[in-house]
Write a structure and sequence with these properties.
single chain; 240 residues; Uracil-DNA Glycosylase, subunit E; six-stranded mixed β-sheet; globular
Length: 240
């Protein structure tokens, strides 16, 4: 069975194909409903309301995998982790560790740029209650497979934000030809696993990181120091 992602030879072509994906009826209905009803604070803005592509360097040494776009964040702005509280926390750390040129990401065209890094979501559309279903994750996986194949040659580190992204990455890595350990390593903050493939013979280090969700940051489960430690480690492995 073919998928829209199949055969996309460049990141631009992959982005164009993602923008018209309607494979998951529940997600399509939700992302478009939110884009019409909008939040009061953003009622005068035009929401993106479509799948959110990966963005950043086309030759990244670091790939950051998130859960899914926020309804009034990425689903509004069209850029993952942009315009929401999780993104505020994440980009501040990326700036401190040299992976972003400024500490905030509020809108496309705001001057933000990732340095040696790229970020993408395991599920490309905003889900109700921020909870995609396993079937939606699996339906969306070919987009991440295609993106990883296009950037794997220069990649040194993958950081998975949260257990959902950690679970999502394993079949993606397998589809991209990576040799994986068995049994599958458990997720944890700071968990590390090295994987190799013909495209990445020197190996790619997979790092687990608690998701910088509001619940986690407000309760102290994730602190700025904890996030900085993850991305400082990623910087060390990725190189200066």
């Amino acid at each position: 069975m073919t998928h829209l992602a199949d055969g996309a030879a460049t990141l631009d072509k992959l982005t164009a194909r993602q923008s018209v994906c309607r494979a998951c009826p529940r997600l399509v209905a939700w992302r478009e409903q939110v884009a019409v009803t909008r939040r009061r604070a953003f009622r005068d803005e035009r929401y993106w309301g479509r799948p959110i592509p990966g963005w950043g360097s086309e030759r990244p040494r670091l790939l950051i995998i998130g859960l899914a776009p926020a309804a009034h964040g990425g689903n509004r702005t069209g850029r993952i982790f942009t315009g929401d509280r999780s993104g505020d926390f994440l980009f501040a750390s990326l700036y401190r560790t040299g992976f972003a040129v400024q500490p905030t990401s509020v809108a496309v065209g705001d001057g933000q740029r990732l340095v040696d890094a790229r970020m993408a979501a395991a599920v490309r559309c905003a889900p109700p209650d921020n909870k995609p279903e396993p079937a939606e994750r699996d339906t969306c996986a070919p987009w991440l497979v295609a993106e990883l194949r296009l950037v794997a040659g220069n990649l040194r580190v993958i950081v998975c934000l949260g257990g959902f992204a950690w679970q999502a990455i394993w079949p993606v890595l397998s589809s991209c030809g990576f040799s994986l350990p068995r049994p599958r390593p458990a997720f944890g903050h700071g968990a590390e696993v090295r994987v190799t493939s013909p495209q990445a013979p020197d190996g790619v280090l997979l790092i687990g990181c608690y998701h910088p969700s509001q619940q986690n940051t407000f309760t102290g489960r994730v602190t700025p120091a904890m996030l900085d430690a993850i991305f400082t480690r990623a910087r060390t492995v990725a190189g200066p």
